[in-house]
Amino acid sequence: MPEPTITEPDFFTVIGTQRAMRRLKPDPVPPEYIEKIIWAATRAPSGGNRQPWRFLVITDPDKRAEIARHYSEAWGAYTASGYGGTAGKQLSPEDADSNERVLRSSQYLADHLDEVPVHILVCTFSNPSVNAGIASGSSIYPAVQNLMLAARALGLGTALTTIHRQRQDEIRELLGIPDTVETAALIPVGWPMGRFGEGRRLPTSHVTYYDTWGEKRDAK
Length: 220
Ligand SMILES: Cc1cc2nc3c(=O)[nH]c(=O)nc-3n(C[C@H](O)[C@H](O)[C@H](O)COP(=O)(O)O)c2cc1C
Description:
Blueprint lengths: L10 H7 L13 H11 L11 E6 L2 H20 L12 H20 L5 E8 L15 H13 L3 E2 L9 H8 L5 E10 L13 H4 L13
Helix pairs in contact: 1-5, 2-5, 3-4, 3-6
């Protein structure tokens, strides 16, 4: 078993360098790492503290291959439909470049998902009366983010993916998931081939208003 690269970055370094890591090594991940990141996920808030989550950890190679097949086909249909592409968009050269990188990296994941040693399906209970409108997902995605931050802290790469939902029925059948359960995210987990780095994000000054919508403060 390869020696895990355990980094111990501080909290803000973890947040600042947690980004979609889609190029992952096939090397195994020790179970205690998986338990630790799921523990972190379960520290998240949820409406009424209902904790409506279940984590389905998939390491079986045949099941991963089948999930990867569905994922890849769904990804192919997504890109073929023009979504995620740049056609018809007025993008700056930087945005076009960034878009291109996301597409390339996403394509890599779609082509290699079967090789990623651990797939985690973060599941939640579908309850139309609770999970309606904008609140849909709000009791599960904090847990997803905690899981990914904890993985980053341990040196593990992850990416939040949802394309698999196009094949949710098939994935439910494959894994014995009841119809009353939604698969909110499929998170590939593995040791990254590349390095963690800062994601491309808007500056806080661009996205923060004070007291009145649109009112900015001069940067100090
Ligand atoms: C709701 C949601 C759904 C996403 N679905 C996918 C997906 O299906 N496949 C994928 O490769 N990335 C997916 N992503 C990852 C985004 O592409 C990624 O977070 C974004 O490009 C920023 O990447 P960065 O953290 O590397 O800067 C998703 C992210 C979110 C928040």
